[in-house]
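Incident review: delayed structure delivery

Summary: a single-chain prediction request sat in the queue longer than the usual turnaround. Root cause was a stuck worker, restarted by the on-call engineer. No data loss occurred. The affected request and its eventual output are reproduced below so the record is complete for anyone auditing the incident later.

Affected input:
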Amino acid sequence: MNMERTLISQTPEKIGEKVSLSGWINVRRDHGKLIFLDLRDRTGIVQAVILPDKKEAYQKAKTIKNEFVVSIFGKVKERPSGQSKEGESTNKLEIEVEELEIISATEDDFPFEISAKELKLNAQTLFDNRNLSLRNRKINDIFRLYSVLLDSYGRAMRADDFLEIKSPKILSSATEGGANFFKIKYFKREAFLAQSPQFYKQAGVGAFERVFEIGTVFRAEPHFTTRHVNEFTGLDAEMGFISDFSDIMDELEKVMRKITQEISQNCVKILKEYGGEILNEEKFPRIKLEEALKILKKEYNKESLGIDTDPEGERMISDWVKKKYHSDFVFLTHYPVSGRPFYTMPGKDLRLTESFDLIFKGVEIATGGQRIHIYHQLIESIKRHKLDPKDFADYLNIFKLGMPPHGGWGIGSERIVQKILNLSSVKEAILFPRDVKRLTP
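Output delivered after worker restart:
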C-alpha cells in the first residue's frame, strides 16, 4: 500500500478510483460471507466491504475488533441501490477492499460501546474512561466546536488590534487575595497558581495598549456544581484609553457576536446534533443589577440577599430577557464594591462599581469592568478591602509609571460551549476535567 493517504472526506470526489485510507475501526459487522468495516478518521466515517475472494484481507478482517487501527486499499464505489443513507456524502458510497493492514490492535475489552450515537453514561464512567469516551463521535464534536470558538476569539481580538500575550501561571502571591488559590512548592519557597492573568494584562496595557490571552486559570474553590471546575481556559482581554466601562461592553459584545456567528456558520451539523441555537440578533440588553433584582421580585417573587444575585436569579433574568428582547445574552452592571476585587473602579455612587457580568443562557460566562488606574486611589482601595499594599508592591509599580483609563474582561470559555450545546455540566466541555475529586486521568 505504497500510496498517498486519502482522507475519508475526500472519497466522494474519487468514485471509481482506488484509494488508500487509514483510521480506526468504528464498528465491524458480519453479514453472511461479507464483512463490513466502518472506518473512522479525523474527517468522518465510511463503510468498507471485504469479499471472501480477497483471501488475505478477509482473514485479517475476521480478527478485527472495534478501535483497531488499520489501513485499507480499495476502490471507491457508490452503494447499491437501497443501501445508501441520508446525511453525509460518505453514507452514499463504500470502499471495496483489496488489501488490509492491521497497524495496531486493541488490548482490552471496552466498558461501553463508543460507536453508539449516544453515550448514556454516568459522569464517573464518562470521565474515568475519558481516553475512550473522547473517541465517540458526538463527544468528539464538542471539541471540534470548541476549537472553532478558540480560533474565532483569537482572530476577533487581532482584528481589533489586540496583541496576544502569555502571562506566568506561577506567582509569588495570590492575584486577588482571598482563599481560592492553590499553593505549590517552588524550590525552597511557597508559590501560587494564577487565579487570573489580571495583573499581567494590566501591565500589558501600559506596554501595548490592547492585549488578550487564551490561558489556563486555577481556582481552589470546593464547588460541587455543574458550572464550576478548578482548572479552566480563560479568554482574557484588557484595553486602554477607554471613556468608561461601556466601551468594554461594546467590545465584548462585538467579539461575542463574531464568535457565535462563526460557530453558527461553521458548526451547523454539530449544533443540529445537540439541538443548539444562539439568539443574538438584537443588541445585548444592559440592566443594572439593582434593577434586575427588582424584576426578579416582581416577575418571579424571588427575594435576594443584599445587592447580588445567585445562579437561580441568573437563570430567571435570562428567561425574562429572552422573552422581552429575544436575546440569549444580557449584561448585568454596577455590582457592589464589596463583591468586586480591589482594582475595580467605583462609580458615581461609591457603593457600586463600573463593572459587569455577561450572562449567556442563564449562566455567567464573563466578568469585567473598568480598573482603577490612579496609584493613590488604588492604594486606598487595597486598604478598604483589608489587604496590605506591601503585598502588591510589584503590581503597584505599574501605576507609578503612568497608566491610561482601562478595563477588560475574563471569560470562562468552556461555559460558552456548555450552554451552546446544552451540556448538563461544564465538565463535558473539558478534555480532562479537574474538580475537587478528580485529578486523573
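Verification: The chain has two domains: 8-104, 132-429.
Action items: add queue-age alerting; document worker restart procedure.
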